[in-house]
Amino acid sequence: MPLLNLAIADDVQGVGLENIISGCKFFILSGVPGSKFAYAVKAAGSELWVQAAGGSGAVDLSAFGLAVIEQQAAAAGLGSVGFQTRRRGLVRKAARAGYQVDGYIMRKIINA
């Protein structure tokens, strides 16, 4: 949970981390010295959906984590991996790894 709590800043709907990760399977990646990475995923049809992820380390954990998640999806016979983010840097990293933007979420705060 401490690593997944790093993803709470992306909770744009304010539903709380517990609701975001409800029904997920949880994983912690190890084997990269000085780095920690955890993620929560669930199958959504033929896709493995990343609900939350967080980590810290000296290597690019986005590329490393996505590669591992893709392997999990393939091993489970799923056809794709998906996630939602508002972090532009993660969008750029994912694009370099072969991901495509597949939509936008638009929001206007009207009662702040």
Q: How do the helices and strands line up, and which of them pair or pack?
A:
Layout lengths: L16 H4 L4 E5 L6 E9 L2 E10 L4 H15 L4 E4 L4 H9 L16
Parallel strand pairs: 3-4
Antiparallel strand pairs: 1-2, 2-3
Structure description:
- This protein has 112 residues and is of the alpha+beta class.
- It has helices at residues 17-20, 61-75, 88-96, and strands spanning 25-29, 36-44, 47-56, 80-83.
- A four-stranded mixed beta sheet has the order 1-2-3-4.
- The protein is globular and about 45 Å long.
- The model has no long low-confidence stretch (mean pLDDT 88).
Structure at a glance:
This protein is an alpha+beta fold and 112 residues long.
Write down the secondary-structure element order. HEEEHEH
Strand line-up in the sheet with most strands = 1-2-3-4
Number of strands: 4
How much strand? 25-35%
Broad shape: globular
Compute the average pLDDT. 88
Question: How far do the termini sit from each other?
Answer: 29 Å
Uncertain segments of ≥5 residues (pLDDT<50)? Answer: none
CA-based gyration radius: 14 Å
Q: Assign a percent range to the helix content.
A: 25-40%
Helix/strand/pairing category? alpha+beta
Largest sheet: 4 strands, mixed
Total helix count? 3
